[in-house]
Amino acid sequence: MLESLVDSAEQYFSVVSTASLGYLALAFLTYYVSVVIYGIRWKLVLRGVGRDAPLRELVKAILASIFMNNVTPLSRSGGELLRMAWVSKRANIPTGVSAVSIIYERILETIPVFALFLVGMSYFSSGEPLPFVLLGIAGILLIWVKWDSFVRLSLRLFRTSVTEGELERITSLRRMHNLNLIAILLSSTIWLLDVARLKLITLAFGLDLAWSFIAVISVANLLFGLVAFTPGGIGIIEGGLIGTLTYFGIPMALALSITLLERFVSYVASSIVGFAVLLTSGGVEIWKALKSQ
User: Has this prediction a pTM greater than 0.90?
Assistant: First the structure.
């Protein structure tokens, strides 16, 4: 058995050594461009509820929150609280307002995620993509018509409780058509960059996989993250991603290499950067104050 493990390790390292550093550098770039876009979207949503904050502080808060999400159990259990406390201290934004803005961001994300799911499903379809396009349009129209019900459903899915005042403020944002359009476009860009990052990592190993297949992997990655109960989804996301890749015929050594490099970008490196921001930008004091409340 030991000999088998040694052979597997040697096979893995031989595959990793073939990875293109250029594609990996681009994968890192797409990750941090998406963080900046997160900050821009958050700034726009805050403006929609009558508040504003410097983009620099919002990006710092997001980077620090990524670290907290990666080291606290359950999805977003610590990071979102840190984001609310951060803007409360640095931009004098009430916690309730920042909570509304973050919840609204999550609600907006469901639209591009739904579209991504449809693109992924087209991978399994040998026919025309028209039915998926029509289903996507119908789904978006339904969300818009039944906006209040959709907001309540999203809050249940995210296991988030809000006051009636906060709920009214969230639902009233629907009337800001320009804000919604721009925010949805930014959310879509973030998810496209997420798919592009996976594509770049597979290209680093010489695999030119179909975009629809990459969409399937991205959706699977999202689902594994949502159900994970360990800090940052560690162990669950890796196992799920390796299992998904091998299920679709990717050799084990290659699946392991893709998974570990993707997690190095999205978990290890992001944790290091987030921790550095937390230490150098006063985030530790904000977190201590939050815990003492």
Answer: no
